[in-house]
Amino acid sequence: MAEDGEVAKRAKLLKPAEGQGMKTASGLPAQVGPSILASDLSMLAADSKKAMEQWTADYLHVDIMDGHFVPNLTIGPPVVKCLRKHTTAFLDCHLMVSNPEHWVKDMAAAGADRFTFHFEATNDADALIEEVNKTGMKCGMVIKPKTPVDVLFPYLDRIDLVLIMTVEPGFGGQSFMVDMMDKVKTLRAKSPKLNIEVDGGLNLKTIDTAAKAGANMIVAGSAVFKAEDPKLVVQTLRDKVVQHCP
Ligand SMILES: O=C(CO)[C@H](O)[C@H](O)COP(=O)(O)O
Ligand SMILES: [Co+2]
């Protein structure tokens, strides 16, 4: 299990690259996290290093899929553990798994920094939040497109971040669902200091809408890894958050 304070210790080791550490008008972090699902997974360590050091990403988004909660299978704690040996980057882990409670200890031991679980995947979100917070990982909650945002209201004061899915979870490279922005606006109005992350179809065309609605943390897979100039994409996405996020 991760020792208390391990996330904070790793954060101190990170030397900020150009553009990292930027804030929104209300003082929230303005951050971009490339989704490593879109990287060359056989070169995960090298691609992660490039994303953090050359492209100036703020964190890495790690999609954990179990082939049950979603119809796709990706990676799990053993790969996170290997990646951890190669980077001090903040590992933002998006658990698209049934029974997320089964993976808390293994993910903490592997070196995950944030454990974001789907509201739809658990019967006891209260217990799961407590369990995640005890490990020293930060806790996030995420909802699928068809889940209304108000299901999250009882938990907001105990979690670090809400992730609003802007595609059906399971695959990269899908189109951004603009109608999810009402959820972001509702959350932002209710919780001005909450980290709101969006995931799925974020790119240079969709970023203004997401940032204006109130998202301050942007996951981008294809838009970064398939770009001709990934650094420019990361920096532009972050600049748009600074410019537009209230
Ligand atoms: O959680 C995810 C899919 O379930 C991914 O993080 C997301 O799809 C990112 O990929 P892209 O930016 O290409 O849409
Ligand atoms: Co994701």
Automatic annotation (TrEMBL):
Q: Name one Pfam family in it.
A: Ribul_P_3_epim
In terms of domain of life, where is this protein from? Eukaryota
Gene3D superfamilies xref list: Aldolase class I
Cofactor, how bound (note): Binds 1 divalent metal cation per subunit.
Query: Which residues of this UniProt protein bind substrate?
Result: S35, H94, G170, F171, G172, G173, G201, G221, S222
Cofactor(s) listed in the protein's UniProt record: a divalent metal cation; Co(2+); Mn(2+); Fe(2+)
**For a divalent metal cation, which residues are the binding ones?**
H61, D63, H94, D199
UniProt keyword terms in alphabetical order: Carbohydrate metabolism, Cobalt, Isomerase, Manganese, Metal-binding, Zinc
Which CDD domains does this one have?
Answer: RPE
> What positions does UniProt annotate as the active site of this protein?
D63 (proton acceptor), D199 (proton donor)
Q: Top EC class per UniProt?
A: isomerase
Q: Name one GO molecular function term.
A: D-ribulose-phosphate 3-epimerase activity
The answer to whether keyword Metal-binding applies is yes
Task: Report residue spans for region: Disordered.
Answer: 1-26
State the InterPro entries in the record: Aldolase_TIM (IPR013785), Ribul_P_3_epim (IPR026019), Ribul_P_3_epim-like (IPR000056), RibuloseP-bd_barrel (IPR011060)
Any single biological process term in GO: pentose-phosphate shunt
Q: What is its EC number?
A: 5.1.3.1
UniProt entry tagged with the keyword Metal-binding: yes
Reaction catalyzed = D-ribulose 5-phosphate = D-xylulose 5-phosphate
- Belongs to which family? Belongs to the ribulose-phosphate 3-epimerase family.
Q: Spell out the protein name for this chain.
A: Ribulose-phosphate 3-epimerase
Q: What is the lineage of its organism?
A: Eukaryota, Choanoflagellata, Craspedida, Salpingoecidae, Salpingoeca
